């Protein structure tokens, strides 16, 4: 995974890149610390989601700044496309497959054939409900909320639990509107 | 016939143990053989520590003998000691060296697991299975 | 061209940032009132424009011009609005506002972990970079 700062104005045009292993290990250390700090798997999953959310609400601005050609999405299909082909590609270097659309078109799955977060990882036996990569759900939720899409995101299956692929489900809840200034309707 | 593999940590504590011999011994004999292997491995540690300063290589070849048992050793850069206690039915220094190198690679992957606490016993079944596979591959498992 | 002042609003209609360079006339109301008034006007204009549009229900409001000054607005997909007032001779400044968003706002505000989203921006570094950028434009006059 490498991050490059193209603009001259940013710290004298510094080019920073981080090795994939360091990234994976950093995330691993973070999850391992949470596992030590919290009692229940549910609580750990919640913390990961919360962290992801806080990343997502900022990451989306960085993403839009890099890709000024991306405008507002007007349907969920476009959103899913941009999320996978550009969002995931930029930040994780993978392109998940979009699958399993619900008949109403308000729900879809992201199939991750590989997941850079889970390299080297083996879940401890005493944490059967730990969703190791749950931070991704939070990031998606945070990022989409900033572009006025209220969504629910959760892991359906995970390679760490012995499934063939990881699957993340995204459900569209509602569209958020700009706040109405006082005295207007 | 004996082939016993052990990884020894910084406080002379076992990090991983695997008996690679196929045996028809009854329970009691099995048990005493296991203890003998552990004992021989443990006794060789001083010789391993001596040998590792005399060689720049990770692979230290044969470091100790006890009756028909031979102890061959490998020390990682992080001073983890890999020992193979075996008899003459395991043949070839080269195959043991290749076995150690493969295990070293598996070992590095295992300690990169964020849930593994360094210098503690490796409980992963996955790791155990993979060590068994490379042991078969290099003719170290009997 | 003269750049008078710049506002940044988030989509919850709070004014995150205000900076003036060459504003000459006071509005006669408190700054809070003035910002509320501006946001209210932009909001109403946007909804009116999309309702009256003969071609599409999507608004593409980028500003208006009087015979004295011109208001430029750049809105990101996240609903952050950059509003710049200049004199009426200015051309299309969308690219300039986009630069402020991508290269200054995102870099110095969003990527600053100490900045809490939705609060007033008080980063001196951001102000400095913004001033440098605006003042580097050939048209800038004090």
UniProtKB/TrEMBL annotation, chain A:
The keyword Endoplasmic reticulum applies. It is found in: Endoplasmic reticulum; Golgi apparatus, cis-Golgi network. InterPro entries: Bet3 (IPR016721), NO_sig/Golgi_transp_ligand-bd (IPR024096), TRAPP_component (IPR007194). Transmembrane segments: none annotated. GO terms for cellular component: endoplasmic reticulum; Golgi apparatus; TRAPP complex. Keywords: Endoplasmic reticulum, ER-Golgi transport, Golgi apparatus, Lipoprotein, Palmitate, Transport. GO terms for biological process: Golgi vesicle transport. Gene3D superfamilies: Trafficking protein particle complex subunit 3 (3.30.1380.20). Belongs to the TRAPP small subunits family. BET3 subfamily. Homodimer. May play a role in vesicular transport from endoplasmic reticulum to Golgi. This is Trafficking protein particle complex subunit. The lineage of its organism: Eukaryota, Metazoa, Porifera, Demospongiae, Heteroscleromorpha. The gene is 100641887.
UniProtKB/TrEMBL annotation, chain B:
It comes from the Eukaryota. It is found in: Cytoplasm, Perinuclear region. Keywords: ER-Golgi transport, Transport. It holds the Pfam family Sedlin_N. One of its GO terms (biological process) is endoplasmic reticulum to Golgi vesicle-mediated transport. The keyword Chloroplast does not apply. One of its GO terms (cellular component) is perinuclear region of cytoplasm. This is Trafficking protein particle complex subunit. It comes from Amphimedon queenslandica. The gene is 100640821.
UniProtKB/TrEMBL annotation, chain C:
GO terms for biological process: endoplasmic reticulum to Golgi vesicle-mediated transport. It is found in: Endoplasmic reticulum; Golgi apparatus, cis-Golgi network. Its main location: endoplasmic reticulum. It comes from the Eukaryota. Pfam families: Sybindin. One of its GO terms (cellular component) is TRAPP complex. The keyword Transport applies. Keywords: Endoplasmic reticulum, ER-Golgi transport, Golgi apparatus, Transport. SMART domains: Sybindin. Belongs to the TRAPP small subunits family. BET5 subfamily. Part of the multisubunit transport protein particle (TRAPP) complex. The heterodimer TRAPPC6B-TRAPPC3 interacts with TRAPPC1 likely providing a core for TRAPP complex formation. PANTHER family: TRAFFICKING PROTEIN PARTICLE COMPLEX SUBUNIT, TRAFFICKING PROTEIN PARTICLE COMPLEX SUBUNIT 1. This is Trafficking protein particle complex subunit. It comes from Amphimedon queenslandica (Sponge). The lineage of its organism: Eukaryota, Metazoa, Porifera, Demospongiae, Heteroscleromorpha.
């Amino acid at each position: 995974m490498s991050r490059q700062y193209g603009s001259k104005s940013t710290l004298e045009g510094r080019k920073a890149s981080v090795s994939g292993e360091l990234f994976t290990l950093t995330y691993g250390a973070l999850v391992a610390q949470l596992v030590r700090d919290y009692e229940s798997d549910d609580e750990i999953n919640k913390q990961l989601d919360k962290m992801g959310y806080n990343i997502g609400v900022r990451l989306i601005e960085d993403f839009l700044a890099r890709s000024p050609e991306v405008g507002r999405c007007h349907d969920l299909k476009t959103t899913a496309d941009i999320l996978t082909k550009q969002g995931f590609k930029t930040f994780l270097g993978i392109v998940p497959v979009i699958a399993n659309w619900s008949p109403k078109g308000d729900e879809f799955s992201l199939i991750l054939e590989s997941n850079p977060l889970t390299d080297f990882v083996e879940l401890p036996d005493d944490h059967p409900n730990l969703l190791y990569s749950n931070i991704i759900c939070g990031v998606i939720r945070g990022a989409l909320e900033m572009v006025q899409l209220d969504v629910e995101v959760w892991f359906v299956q995970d390679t760490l639990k012995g499934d063939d692929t990881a699957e993340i489900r995204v459900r569209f809840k509602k569209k958020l509107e700009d706040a109405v200034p006082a005295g207007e309707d | 016939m004996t082939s016993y593999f052990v990884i020894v940590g910084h406080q002379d504590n076992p990090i991983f143990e695997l008996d690679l011999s196929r045996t028809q011994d009854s329970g009691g004999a099995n048990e005493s053989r296991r203890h003998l292997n552990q004992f021989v491995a443990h006794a060789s540690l001083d010789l391993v520590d001596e040998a590792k300063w005399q060689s720049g290589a990770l692979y230290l070849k044969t470091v100790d003998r006890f009756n028909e048992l031979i102890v061959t050793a490998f020390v990682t850069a992080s001073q983890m000691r890999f020992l193979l206690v075996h008899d003459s039915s395991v043949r070839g220094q080269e195959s043991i060296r290749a076995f150690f190198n493969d295990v070293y690679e598996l070992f590095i992957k295992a300690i990169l697991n964020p849930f593994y606490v360094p210098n503690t016993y490796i409980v992963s079944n996955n790791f155990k299975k993979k060590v068994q596979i490379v042991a078969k591959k290099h003719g170290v498992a009997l | 061209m003269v750049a008078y002042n710049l506002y940044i609003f988030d989509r919850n209609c709070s004014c995150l940032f205000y900076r003036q360079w060459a504003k000459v006339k006071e509005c006669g109301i408190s700054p809070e009132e003035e910002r509320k008034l501006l946001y209210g006007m932009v909001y109403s204009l946007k909804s009116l424009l999309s309702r009256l549009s003969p071609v599409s229900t999507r608004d593409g409001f980028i500003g208006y011009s009087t015979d004295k000054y011109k208001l430029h607005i750049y809105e990101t997909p996240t609903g952050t609005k950059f509003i710049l007032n200049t004199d009426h001779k200015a051309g299309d400044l969308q690219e300039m506002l986009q630069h402020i968003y991508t290269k200054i706002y995102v870099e110095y505000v969003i990527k600053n972990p100490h900045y809490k989203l939705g609060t007033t921006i008080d980063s001196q570094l951001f102000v400095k970079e913004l001033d440098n950028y605006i003042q580097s434009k050939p048209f800038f006059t004090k």
